[in-house]
Amino acid sequence: MKFHQHIIQAAIFDMDGTLLDTERLRFKALQQSSLDIMQLEFSLDYLMQCLGLNESSSELLAQQFYGANIPYQQIRKRAAQIELAMIESNGVPLKEGVLEALKYLYSRQIPMAVATSSAREIAEKYLQIANIEHYFKFLVCGDEVLQGKPHPEIFKTACEKFNLAPKNCFMIEDSENGLRSAHDASGVAILIRDIKAPNQRMLDMADDYFESMKDFKSKLEQLN
């Protein structure tokens, strides 16, 4: 598959905020949990800076915001219960155009994987509930790498599993931390807008930017 000057042989997707519209649910769950446990709601500033980070990095950031003694693991555990209850009641919302993009890439015989900061247990459950897990050859999850996003390890690991050079892989992200991970892995970094409007740093790191997955799929059709 052609994409500008690149020859694409695989596509590696972030999950939360890219495939699944779960970031808003996670914000709500974390704010409710933090309010219940420490009588203080996590700020939007803190949560926005957490986008794309794995659990350990988010905990370190929470300690910077709220002090070294913050009961982060207790808050995180309760938030996961709240979020899962919402998911089980209402399902997992897909981002606009995701299913169409997955079907298109599958029809073009482009193998796909997920590189997510979420733990494997959560990632597998959510992709199954969303009924899109069968599109992906494998997952690389935040609890399986030594260094989470924005470090490039997770995307480099996915490329190694595909036995492909990063320059031949789409790395599709929505967050600044995730985009830096893709950029530093030397992949073809695609930015899809989610909660956070892209700043100039993000646009500079991206090989291309799209308002939605629907727009990304339309671009692929035009180029191929």
Give your account of this protein's structure:
This protein is α/β, with parallel strands linked by helices and 224 residues long. The protein folds into two domains: 150 residues, Rossmann fold, CATH 3.40.50.1000; 68 residues. 49% of the residues lie in helices and 13% in strands. It contains ten helices and eight strands. The protein has a six-stranded parallel β-sheet with strand order 5-4-3-6-7-8, sandwiched between helices. Strands 1-2 form a two-stranded antiparallel sheet. InterPro entries: HAD-like_sf (IPR036412), HAD-SF_hydro_IA (IPR006439), HAD_2 (IPR041492), HAD_sf (IPR023214), PGP-like_dom2 (IPR023198). It comes from Acinetobacter bereziniae LMG 1003 = CIP 70.12. This is HAD hydrolase, family IA.
Provide keyphrases for this structure.
alpha/beta, 10 helices, 224 residues, 2 domains, two-stranded antiparallel ribbon, Rossmann fold, six-stranded parallel β-sheet
Superfamily at the CATH H level of the largest domain?
Answer: HAD superfamily/HAD-like
What is the typical, i.e. mean, pLDDT? 95
Strands ordered across the widest β-sheet: 5-4-3-6-7-8
Sheet of most strands: 6 strands, parallel
Protein name: HAD hydrolase, family IA
Pfam families: HAD_2
Organism: Acinetobacter bereziniae LMG 1003 = CIP 70.12
Summarize the structure.
The protein is of the alpha/beta class and 224 residues long.
Give the SSE map:
Blueprint: E1 2-3, E2 6-7, E3 10-13, H1 23-38, H2 44-50, H3 55-66, H4 72-90, H5 98-107, E4 112-116, H6 120-129, E5 138-141, H7 153-162, E6 169-173, H8 176-184, E7 188-192, H9 200-205, E8 208-210, H10 213-223
Parallel strand pairs: 3-4, 3-6, 4-5, 6-7, 7-8
Antiparallel strand pairs: 1-2
Helix pairs in contact: 1-4, 5-10
